[in-house]
User: Fold this.
Amino acid sequence: MTPTEMLGKLQLAIMRVLWTMGEATVADVHRALEESHGLAFTTIATMLKKMEAKGVVDHRTEGRRFIYQPTVTEDAVTRSMVADLAERLFDGRAAALVSHLLESHEVDARELEELRRRIAARENLEKQPKKERGR
Assistant:
């Protein structure tokens, strides 16, 4: 995992606002998170500066306002953080991670069916020669 994609809970919440909005000011992010997080405006501003130093957001200036946008995709962050979690807790074994989730979390019939579809799709992909997979 790259350090730019290792995000804490508040950083992820801020990134979700930016991924949803595309770009946002500190005030926009503060409004979006105020009810759920109850943080001061200055806390959001400080966190965005730290996230910019980390390389996960960038900004442009409009007058006196900084308008922030994400520099990493949600998919890249998710993949990186899940890979890190799987590596640290399950020695990189995806089956162990999935088994843990199935045993320790409520999974409804719809979710189980979705998992079955995804497993079947992956099995079909694995049956294809490697040169045909990328098409």
Notes: The helical segments are 9-21, 26-37, 41-54, 74-90, 94-104, 109-127, 130-133. The first helix runs from residue 9 to 21.
